[in-house]
């Protein structure tokens, strides 16, 4: 099913031609044409519209006729679907006739070119609507239009238009969520499943952009409802469970609530029970097909490529097949290449790509992969917005990769940069975050490495302080606690050995 914005891209060249003709051939100002031909339309020719409707449609038509590019026209049509109604077509017909009566052929061509472009677009859109009706025959048409509005707004967010576009998408979803008809819809019907799952994704995106926990709570509530409302053999259940598990993991990382972590693990176990490796294979095959059916230039292609890369990486972890890891890297590289610089998703794609390259370095030892991993991780950090919940994770990943390169090459500058990024990750992480002990432990390790290289006792003291805090913040029974205790023991042993050597030197000098 193509959305409104997707159909506009399909015929964008057709829409652009009339606009270029307007710029090249029409020398009269548009405002002059408007006053001369549009204002005089008599009331009896207003297609059964009242005065207010007529004024609003006139105003919207004027915006469209003043568009200077297909991109601007696309934006106007997305915001004003009434331009594709019979009333708008009728009004343009009246303007053409009025211009013809007055013998102004330039004005006739002006209005006619726009009317023909809109008529052609309507015919394309009707074909899409017929397909939509077949695929979603239990979703009312008025809800489908709002769904398209929400998806178009989300696409604009992915193209870099910021949180206001997300707010617009959520406002559209809430039109449906708060509608009395939606409240009465079948819990297992297509309408509730589509709206709840997709709106939850948008709420989670806004949480990741703003850090407002209430948005994540709304997303979790919706995903929990859809996961609990369908049978165990429902085709989309693994996707619902995966979304819910990821959301719970996000909330655990933010709040440290062990109940969320337990629920996330339970869902992962349930997902593994509902889908064996063959299900993962099918999921990857479907993701591959979705990529193949999506044209270059469509706003959702980078996200589809990123999802496919994640699936391939997950299968690599399950099977160890290096070809999957190679494909994962290739797909994520393409997602990065196709994502606009200002897109809020770009840092995540870059971070993922850096992680996959790091996996391949660990597998093959190719230093070029580690270099590329660091380059992508650095760009992810640079492009991440201030306050983005994932920024500490990006910083920690960058610090770890730099530490790996130091261990490989011995470049002290990499170790210094590793420490600087690890310190930022710790500083930006809330005190109650369950990730904080991990970041503290990584920082302690890097400081200890620098002490071993330079002998600066202050680094060793700082490594001990960070390791002690990591141990203190880690609950009993955590599988990470032995790791942190081992690190702390190692650092304390180093300081003890340093103290013994100093005492020995002092005794030697005294004797």
Taking pLDDT < 50 over at least 5 consecutive residues as the criterion, the unreliable ranges are 1-32, 39-49, 126-135, 268-275
User: Which CATH first-tier class of the domain at 139-275 would you pick?
Assistant: Mainly Alpha
Q: In terms of structural class, how would the helical and strand content be classed?
A: mainly alpha
Number of strands: 0
What is the straight-line distance between the termini? 89 Å
Roughly what percent helix? over 70%
Q: What's the main sheet like?
A: none
Instruction: Label the overall shape.
Output: elongated
Proportion of strand residues:
under 5%
The count of helical stretches stands at 24
Along the chain, the helix and strand elements come as HHHHHHHHHHHHHHHHHHHHHHHH
Q: What is the fold named in CATH at topology level of the domain at 139-275? A: Serine Threonine Protein Phosphatase 5, Tetratricopeptide repeat
Q: What is the H level of CATH, i.e. the homologous superfamily of the domain at 139-275? A: Tetratricopeptide repeat domain
Rounded mean pLDDT score: 78
Write the SSE topology.
Layout: H1 4-10, H2 12-25, H3 30-38, H4 51-65, H5 70-79, H6 86-101, H7 105-135, H8 141-161, H9 163-177, H10 180-183, H11 190-210, H12 213-229, H13 237-255, H14 258-274, H15 277-292, H16 301-319, H17 322-338, H18 346-364, H19 367-383, H20 391-409, H21 412-428, H22 436-454, H23 457-473, H24 481-510
């Amino acid at each position: 099913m193509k959305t409104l914005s997707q159909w506009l891209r399909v015929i964008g060249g057709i829409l652009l031609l009339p606009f270029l003709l307007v710029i090249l051939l029409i020398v009269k100002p548009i405002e002059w044409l408007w006053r001369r031909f549009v204002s005089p339309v008599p009331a009896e020719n207003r297609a059964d519209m009242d005065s207010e409707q007529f004024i609003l449609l006139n105003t919207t038509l004027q915006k469209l006729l003043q568009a200077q590019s297909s991109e601007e026209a696309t934006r106007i049509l997305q915001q004003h679907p009434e331009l594709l109604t019979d009333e708008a077509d009728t009004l343009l017909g009246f303007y053409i006739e009025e211009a013809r009566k007055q013998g102004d052929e330039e004005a006739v061509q002006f209005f006619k070119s726009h009317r023909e472009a809109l008529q052609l677009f309507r015919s394309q859109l009707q074909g899409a609507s017929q397909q939509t009706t077949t695929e979603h025959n239990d979703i009312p048409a008025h809800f489908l239009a709002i769904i398209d509005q929400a998806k178009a707004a989300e696409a604009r967010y992915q193209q870099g238009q910021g949180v206001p576009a997300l707010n617009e998408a959520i406002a559209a979803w809430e039109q449906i969520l708060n509608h009395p008809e939606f409240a009465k819809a079948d819990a297992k019907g297509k309408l509730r499943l589509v709206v709840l799952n997709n709106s939850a994704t948008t709420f989670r995106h806004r949480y990741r952009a703003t850090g407002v926990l209430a948005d994540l709570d709304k997303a979790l509530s919706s995903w929990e409802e859809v996961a609990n409302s369908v049978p165990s053999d429902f085709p989309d259940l693994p996707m619902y469970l995966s979304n819910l598990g990821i959301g719970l993991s996000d909330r655990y990382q933010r709040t440290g609530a062990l109940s969320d972590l337990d629920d996330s693990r339970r869902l992962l176990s349930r997902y593994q029970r509902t889908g064996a490796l063959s299900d993962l294979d099918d999921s990857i095959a479907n993701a591959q097909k979705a990529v193949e059916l999506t044209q270059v230039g469509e706003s959702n292609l980078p996200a589809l490529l990123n999802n496919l890369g994640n699936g391939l990486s997950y299968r690599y972890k399950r099977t160890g097949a290096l070809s999957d890891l190679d494909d994962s890297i290739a797909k994520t590289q393409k997602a990065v290449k196709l994502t606009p610089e200002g897109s809020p998703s770009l840092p995540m794609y870059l971070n993922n790509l850096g992680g996959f390259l790091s996996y391949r370095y660990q597998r093959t030892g190719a230093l070029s992969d580690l270099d590329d991993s660091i380059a992508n991780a650095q760009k992810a950090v640079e492009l991440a917005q201030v306050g983005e919940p994932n920024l500490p994770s990006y910083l920690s990943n960058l610090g770890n990769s730099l530490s790996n390169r130091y261990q490989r090459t011995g470049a002290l500058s990499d170790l210094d940069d590793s420490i600087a990024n690890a310190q930022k990750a710790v500083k930006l992480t809330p005190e109650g975050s369950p990730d904080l002990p991990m970041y503290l432990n990584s920082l302690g390790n890097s400081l200890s490495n620098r002490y071993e290289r330079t002998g600066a006792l202050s680094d060793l003291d700082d490594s001990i302080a960070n390791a002690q805090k990591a141990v203190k913040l880690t609950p009993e029974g955590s599988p990470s606690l032995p790791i942190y205790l081992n690190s702390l023991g190692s650092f304390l042993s180093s300081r003890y050995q340093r103290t013994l050597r100093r005492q020995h030197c002092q005794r030697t000098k005294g004797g």
